[in-house]
């Protein structure tokens, strides 16, 4: 490897040495090109004239099968294997025994290394196969370093730099164009071969000991709860760090000649390759834990910290990440976020949406295929991700981004225009928020107030329970920033998919239907009373609206009211002034309330529909499950009838009814809500402009009259989406 040779001469020497030391007649190296073709780059034993001419497509023949599956093949009679393909130009028909291994780097297949023998019946032993994989890893580093560029025909590029497109789920609207910043930056192993096996084993043992000690330290910290998801993850890490099978594979790789860090890279790469072909989500998650542990061990060995390098046009690429980790990045530098996992309700996605960052989730394999600094495009509208895009794709999205910027400028020009329909109906457009970073958008978006302030985000981004004084400080800052505009604070909505690491949670088979929101809060009145006290103190002498999430039974409202009364009495006893006006409301998210609408309206000052959860429970569809999340339409007639019933109940009782779910932020579904009678909706700040542009062109009464005919038809049970689009197009309403 260190001899001063030209690239082709180096490859020829490598295959010659392998053939000699493994006592085989043939050794060949195939390299994967950007067009999905495996090209023969070097051979000892086959026809030398076939080098750079012999080709196999990905999945074709034994070599193509190894490349496609990233798994070795060890055969005693290769020609009778069903995948065998004969290439006449190579002259390989006389060879029977076959051992082929993928050339892997960071789980990506860059080529295939093969040895063959004439004698049938020979099986290469495991230690030879292991050593062969080690050599393949060395070749992978050579390919990744650009050592083979220019060996093939002009215009042919290797797979490492080819454009790749991924299909994911759109989680936050927008277009992001920039360069990859790996959230957990890949550790580049530059020192591959050891000179002293015993000293490298000692280095590995010492690094493992430090890794185990760091996990024990995290487990013993006071801010790690005795139970819960966070501790369970650390307990899993503890078990994996002690796993003898993993440690044995690491030590074997060192004894085969690698440095400690190269050994970790090799075992980790094998593991990543296996992950790509697993379907069991539980096993995949456990292997991801192993992968993360290997990264920690690598950083320990080479003395690197875990932080990634920030760039001015960063698109953060991660398997998954916490909301607090996203906030560690400078907002002005992040152009997009790409997650291999993630769902619309993931904590990090909620925060990204608040920050206006486009997000694509469920983008499988993107971490392994990416390198820091790679050009990348994220389409938050479709969920598509284009890694190392060709110039024409980059230009297409640059134009699209420019068009969106012009459109946003038009929306900004509407900021001071009253939100009234063409026939004079005033529509309250409010924004959803949850963090201090959201507050500047209150004025920028032209929102009339904060229709939903998610108080749980403060709890989710903290490593310990926020103190009462911290809560009060946040709520006062929100009320100050809003000025005369109304603010609706939703009390703590945790549990389900929003687990707090410091709050013990038992295992649940159906978390969304389980111990969450008001159910948890009423069982832990100290938690709810602390929050209510902070809210009431922050609102001294001013107006405040408090809303309770996921109410299922009217008795829960009575219980919550009694807690508020106790806190008001407590504050008066200690000389605090009551809020100038206190309004109490509830989130309508559970279908049972649809059959208690009249008594519900009689108990509250306002009602807000949480359409995300209501839709999920209405159709019994897990919105985080990609297999069913898009199966049902939130513009279906049965669901719209339910929403209309709530709006009509509010009209009967003179109780304001709003909606603050995802529906409110899409112009077409917002148009449907206005047609149902809603006069207040709350959404993410970037959605206010498009929704206002729609309603300014809308005749609300005409829509309501035509819409009623559709909804009143007892035989109609499909989607109203077609009707709404037709209405918008007939009346030239932008949607």
Quick tags:
25 helices, alpha/beta, eight-stranded parallel beta sheet, 735 residues
Through-space gap between termini: 61 Å
Given as residue ranges, the uncertain stretches (5+ residues, pLDDT < 50) are 222-230, 305-309
Strand content: 15-25%
What structural class do helix, strand and pairing data support? alpha/beta
What does the radius of gyration come to?
Answer: 30 Å
- For the secondary structure, the number of strands is 22
Largest sheet: 8 strands, mixed
Q: Output the strand order for the largest sheet.
A: 7-14-13-9-10-11-12-8
Q: What's the average pLDDT?
A: 86
Query: Helix share of residues?
Result: 40-55%
Sum up the overall morphology in one term: elongated
Task: Describe the structure concisely for a colleague.
The protein is built from 25 helices and 22 strands.
Structure description:
With 735 residues, this protein is of the alpha/beta class. It is 42% helix and 16% strand. The chain is built from 25 helices and 22 strands. An eight-stranded mixed sheet has the order 7-14-13-9-10-11-12-8. The chain has an eight-stranded parallel sheet with strand order 21-20-19-18-17-16-15-22. It has a six-stranded antiparallel sheet with strand order 3-2-1-6-5-4. Helix 22 packs across helix 24. The termini are far apart. About 2% of the residues have low confidence.
């Amino acid at each position: 490897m260190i001899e001063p040779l030209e690239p082709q001469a180096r490859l020829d020497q490598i295959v010659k040495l392998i053939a000699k030391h493994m006592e085989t007649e043939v050794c060949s190296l195939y390299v994967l090109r950007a067009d999905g073709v495996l090209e023969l780059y070097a051979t000892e034993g086959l026809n030398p004239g076939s080098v750079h001419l012999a080709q196999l497509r990905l999945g074709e023949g034994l070599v193509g099968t190894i490349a496609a599956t990233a798994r070795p093949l060890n055969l005693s009679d290769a020609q009778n294997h069903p995948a065998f393909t004969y290439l006449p130009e190579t002259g390989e028909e006389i060879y029977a025994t076959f051992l082929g291994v993928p050339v892997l780097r960071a789980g990506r297949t860059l080529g295939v290394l093969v040895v063959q023998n004439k004698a049938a019946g020979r099986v290469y032993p495991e230690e030879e196969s292991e050593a062969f994989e080690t050599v393949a890893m060395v070749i992978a580093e050579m390919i990744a370093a650009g050592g083979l560029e220019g060996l093939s025909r002009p215009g042919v590029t290797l797979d490492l730099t080819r454009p790749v497109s991924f299909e994911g789920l759109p989680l936050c609207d927008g277009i992001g164009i920039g360069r990859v910043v790996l959230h957990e930056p890949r550790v580049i192993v530059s020192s591959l071969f050891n000179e002293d096996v015993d000293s490298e084993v000692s280095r590995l043992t010492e690094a493992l000991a430090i890794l185990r000690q760091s996990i024990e330290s995290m487990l013993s910290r006071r801010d790690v709860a005795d139970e819960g998801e966070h501790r369970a993850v650390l307990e899993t890490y503890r078990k994996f760090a002690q796993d003898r099978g993993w440690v044995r594979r690491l030590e074997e790789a060192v004894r085969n000649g690698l440095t400690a860090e190269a050994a970790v890279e090799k075992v980790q790469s094998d593991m990543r390759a296996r992950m790509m072909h697993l379907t069991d989500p539980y096993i995949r998650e456990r292997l991801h834990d192993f992968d993360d542990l290997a990264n920690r061990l690598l950083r320990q060995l080479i003395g690197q910290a875990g932080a990634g390098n920030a760039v001015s046009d960063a698109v953060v690429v991660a398997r998954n990440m916490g909301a607090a980790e996203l906030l560690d990045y400078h907002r002005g530098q992040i152009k997009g976020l790409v997650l291999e996992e993630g769902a619309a309700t993931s904590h990090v996605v909620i925060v990204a949406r608040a920050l206006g960052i486009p997000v694509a989730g469920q983008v499988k394999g993107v971490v392994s295929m990416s390198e820091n600094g790679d050009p990348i495009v994220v389409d938050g509208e479709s969920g598509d991700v284009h890694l190392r895009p060709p110039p024409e794709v980059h230009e297409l999205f640059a134009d699209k981004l420019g068009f969106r910027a012009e459109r946003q400028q038009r929306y900004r020009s509407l900021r001071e225009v009253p939100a009234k329909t063409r026939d004079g109906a005033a529509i309250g457009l409010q924004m959803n928020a949850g963090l201090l970073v959201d507050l500047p958008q209150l004025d920028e978006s032209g929102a009339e107030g904060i229709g939903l302030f998610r108080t749980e985000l403060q709890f989710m981004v903290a490593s310990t329970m926020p103190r009462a004084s911290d809560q009060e400080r946040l709520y006062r800052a929100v009320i100050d920033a809003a000025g005369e505009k109304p603010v609706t604070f939703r009390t703590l909505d945790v549990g389900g998919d929003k687990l707090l690491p410091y709050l013990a949670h038992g295992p649940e088979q159906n978390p969304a239907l389980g111990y969450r929101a008001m159910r948890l809060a009423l069982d832990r009145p100290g938690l709810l009373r602390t929050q209510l006290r902070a809210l009431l103190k922050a609102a001294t002498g001013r107006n405040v609206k408090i809303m309770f999430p996921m109410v299922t039974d009217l008795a829960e409202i009575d219980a919550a009211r009694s807690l508020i009364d106790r806190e008001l009495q407590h504050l008066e006893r200690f000389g605090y002034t009551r809020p100038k006006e206190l309004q109490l409301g509830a989130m309508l998210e559970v279908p049972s309330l649809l059959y208690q609408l009249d008594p519900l309206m009689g108990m509250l000052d306002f009602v807000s529909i949480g359409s995300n959860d209501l839709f999920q429970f209405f159709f019994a569809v897990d919105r985080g499950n990609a297999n069913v999340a898009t199966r049902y339409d939130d513009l279906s007639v049965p669901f719209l009838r339910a929403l209309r019933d709530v709006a009509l109940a509010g009209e009967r009782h003179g109780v304001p009814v709003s909606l603050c779910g995802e529906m409110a932020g899409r112009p077409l579904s917002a148009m449907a809500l206005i047609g149902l009678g809603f006069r207040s909706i709350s959404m993410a700040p970037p959605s206010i402009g498009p929704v206002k542009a729609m309603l300014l062109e809308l005749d609300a009464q005409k829509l309501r009259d035509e819409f009623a005919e559709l909804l009143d038809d007892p035989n109609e049970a499909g989607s109203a989406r077609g009707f709404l689009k037709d209405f918008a197009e007939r009346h030239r309403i932008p949607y």
